[in-house]
Amino acid sequence: MAGVVVVDAATLFAGPLAATILGDFGADVIKVEHPKRGDPSRTHGASKHGIGLWWKMLGRNKRTVTADLSSSEGAELLKRLLARADVLIENFRPGTLERWGLSPEILHELNPRLVIARVTGFGQFGPYARRPGFGTLAESMSGFAAVTGEPDGPPTLPPFGLADGISALTCVNAVTMALHHRDRPGGSGRGQVIDLAIVEPLVTILGAQPLVWDQLGQVQSRTGNRSVNNAPRNTYRTRDGRWVAVSTSADSIAQRVMRLVGHPEVIDEPWFATGAGRAEHADLLDGHVGAWIAERDLATVVEEFERVEAAVAPIYDIRDVFEDPQYRALDTITTVQDPDLGPVRMQNVLFRLSETPGSIRWTGRARGADNTDVWGGLGVSADELTALRDKGVV
Prior knowledge:
The chain has helices at 14-24, 53-58, 72-82, 96-99, 104-110, 135-141, 162-183, 199-204, 209-216, 251-260, 275-280, 282-294, 298-307, 318-323, 325-330, 371-377, 382-390, and strands spanning 5-9, 28-33, 47-48, 51-52, 62-66, 87-90, 115-120, 193-197, 234-237, 243-247, 311-314, 333-338, 342-347. The chain is an alpha/beta fold. A six-stranded parallel β-sheet has the order 5-2-1-6-7-8, with helices on both faces. Strands 9-10-11 form a three-stranded antiparallel β-sheet. Strand 1 (5-9), helix 1 and strand 2 (28-33) form a beta-alpha-beta unit. Helix 1 packs across helix 7. It is elongated.
């Protein structure tokens, strides 16, 4: 993404995370924040010495500038910046940019090549378009929460920004597709508007649920850690108080598991031949697998499953992720130097490219740290910048 200029004018969390990923792979990301409030992620969640930790990750590889876009002077600054940019990522409520004189039509007159990613809760049109939208609402309304949790328990929300994270990955895909369409041989040479509703990506990954309802009139219910498609599939507690997850999506794996736990007789049952048939007998299969695992320590369980080439994984918390040899080999959690906190460990770039690997060049910077370089580079003099600062524009 080197040579691509991305303006991140979004907040919490999908839009900014999309910009972070683009920055990890070389894009020049310029974060535009309100001069007083800044991105809420700076104060969201845990902090150390008053320094927000989430921002250190979310703001990495971004140059930071400030501008009050609701003011005419701030809007003009953004226009000057976007005249030279490739991508704008924003998540204001529909109609906000238009009210500020920054509509896509105006921006495309200024820069026809600009890709504009508009990330909102419900999209740019429809009866809910102007509602405030957050990931929690998407997790609720997409169908995700309805199928998550124990059968006799309440719908369960994830304890992290799942919908925002998936929307960020979706946004990155959309941006790169739009850039490819613009720049490929025979391409349009023009940017376009991306309308991304956070409620939609989770619906996409629900699998066949929409088709099952449409064609069969069936609604998936909550099954806890079990699956409606196969069994045994659950979490099981070991003798030393740890937990493991077992998956048997392939019939051959299911057979290996049942032989391992000492119940090969079930393999000959007619219902065992299909995942759906096994799922209907989950109580029986879980009882066999759970009893075998409960008599053994975690290390033995994992060793025995690996010996017979069956699928098992320990249930990790973040401490285990830090120590696991596979994650260490991949450098999934990497060390970065931060000017405020010294060495910090955070998630590495998402994937490894053999020819153009991504990198973390710096952590999240202070609000407005690059005002002089960025605005000055657009021709704003030191005196003008001081005047704008005095007026609260930057």
